[in-house]
Amino acid sequence: xxxxxxxxxxxxxxxxxxQADYDAIAGHARYLELPRGRILAQAGQExxxxxxxxxxxxxxxxxxKEGHRAEAGLFGLDGYVPTSAVAGVETxxxxxxxxxxxxxxxxxxxxxxxxxxxxxxxxxxxIRAIEAFSVQLASTAVTNAIHEINQxxxxxxxxxxxxxxxxxxxxxxxxxxxxxxxxRPSVTTxxxxxxxxxxxxxxxxxxxxxxxxxxxxxxxxxxxxxxxxYRRLMQDLRSEASVQPA
Length: 246
Description:
Blueprint: H1 3-7, H2 12-15, H3 19-26, E1 29-34, E2 39-41, E3 49-63, E4 69-75, E5 80-81, E6 95-108, H4 109-118, H5 120-146, H6 149-162, E7 168-169, H7 173-180, H8 184-196, E8 200-203, E9 206-209, H9 212-219, H10 225-242
Helix pairs in contact: 4-5, 5-10, 6-8, 6-9, 7-8
């Protein structure tokens, strides 16, 4: 794979890397189709590959010892997984599954670690992404504590919309129940509320956002902080990448 091909990737983190880092990983990146349900990492299992999505949405899922599952966070072209790889941890701390089909580039874990250890600029981008993801996790914790389910659903739909093209999101009620850590009937009720307000249209296994601005207003303080922090954390990296010599 050549540098120009990597440069055309839509993963935001890869676009922030200096050209030298692009060149260093270019020959080791594999393009993959990632269907819904594809497992990218499993808790307690050895990490073999690090994934950078260019389309689709992946879900970071935590399973309790009682067998209950809940989504801790999501990512798309804004990040990579498993984040454990950045610390040199060889096993994943959580499950990662594709919830919206897409594509991405895969780099062998060992190659990722070599680049982390030899390039400060590469490591800086990867570590900054971890901070941004930590903010998302904190935002989820706060939202789950103080906002009601309809606002939480609005937030998750906006987060998904941020990571795909178009206004139609392929999400099942089962996935939404995992996202919100509620039962499926509660998801159905909340979808009806948002649909009744004209904010979305709920189809079978698909949700269409009809009025994004109104949906943001409805979500209120549940949405926006993590997104603002992501932009802030990445802003100076964009400046640094833009001044790298050709």
